[in-house]
């Protein structure tokens, strides 16, 4: 009789362990994965047009920021405090840590060389803080919106350069609208 009792007790412990495992997986999927791995963001505004449209749903990955920084021309999501409120931005990285940046007219100079890029959809109306040469510190990035004439980005003092610690993630693809589903160039 006692061996039957201990057998049932072992089965209950096994069942409890199995439920605990499933509970852990559920918590991981619902909380930890969106917090630390990936997140869906809805684009709010037109500063990234023609690449991203207002209302697009994009997926960002959050892991690489812990191991390595993003690369030039990556589209990132970052959070800045503006007027005592946190604001989320989506912009393209133009300048990397240690780069010398200057904007003259519509030309972006990185380390005294004109940057060959074609992401900007219109003319830049102002150079902002990059009118004079500036050198990015370690863990600082210079970002621009693709719709340059209306974008609040690193050129403005309210946004300024983006610190690595402010980066929430790198955009890896569009998930909505479904007709535009896929990787973003």
In summary, what is this structure?
This protein is an alpha+beta fold and about 180 residues long.
Tell me what the structure shows:
With 185 residues, the chain is α+β, with helices and mostly antiparallel strands. It contains 2 helices and 11 strands. It has helices spanning 2-37, 64-67; strands at residues 38-42, 57-61, 75-82, 85-95, 100-104, 107-110, 113-114, 134-135, 140-144, 162-163, 167-176. It has a 7-stranded antiparallel sheet. Strand 5 and strand 6 (107-110) form a beta hairpin. The longest helix is centred in the N-terminal third of the chain and has 36 residues, at 2-37. The mean pLDDT is 85.
Mean pLDDT: 85
Please state the oligomeric state of the protein chains shown: single chain
Largest sheet: 7 strands, antiparallel
What class, by secondary structure content?
alpha+beta
* Cα Rg: 23 Å
Report the end-to-end length measured between terminal Cα atoms: 69 Å
> What strand order characterises the main sheet?
1-2-11-3-4-9-10
Q: How large is the count of helical segments?
A: 2
Please report which band the strand proportion falls in: under 5%, 5-15%, 15-25%, 25-35%, 35-45% or over 45%. Answer: 25-35%
Order of helices and strands: HEEHEEEEEEEEE
Number of strands: 11
Principal-axis shape: elongated
């Amino acid at each position: 009789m006692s061996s039957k009792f201990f057998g049932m007790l072992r089965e209950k412990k096994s069942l409890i362990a199995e439920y605990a495992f499933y509970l852990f997986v559920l918590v991981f999927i619902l909380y930890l994965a969106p917090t630390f791995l990936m997140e869906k963001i809805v684009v709010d505004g037109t500063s990234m047009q023609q690449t991203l449209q207002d209302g697009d749903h994009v997926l960002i990955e959050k892991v690489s920021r812990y191991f390595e920084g993003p690369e030039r021309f990556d589209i990132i999501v970052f959070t800045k405090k503006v007027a005592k409120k946190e604001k989320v931005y989506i912009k393209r990285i133009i300048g990397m840590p240690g780069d010398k940046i200057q904007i003259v007219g519509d030309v972006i100079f990185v380390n005294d060389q004109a940057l060959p890029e074609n992401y900007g959809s219109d003319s830049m109306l102002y150079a902002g803080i990059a009118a004079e040469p500036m050198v990015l510190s370690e863990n600082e990035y210079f970002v621009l919106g693709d719709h340059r004439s209306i974008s609040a980005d690193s050129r403005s003092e309210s946004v300024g350069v983006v610190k690595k610690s402010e980066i929430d993630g790198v955009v890896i693809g569009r998930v909505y609208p479904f007709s535009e589903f896929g990787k973003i160039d």
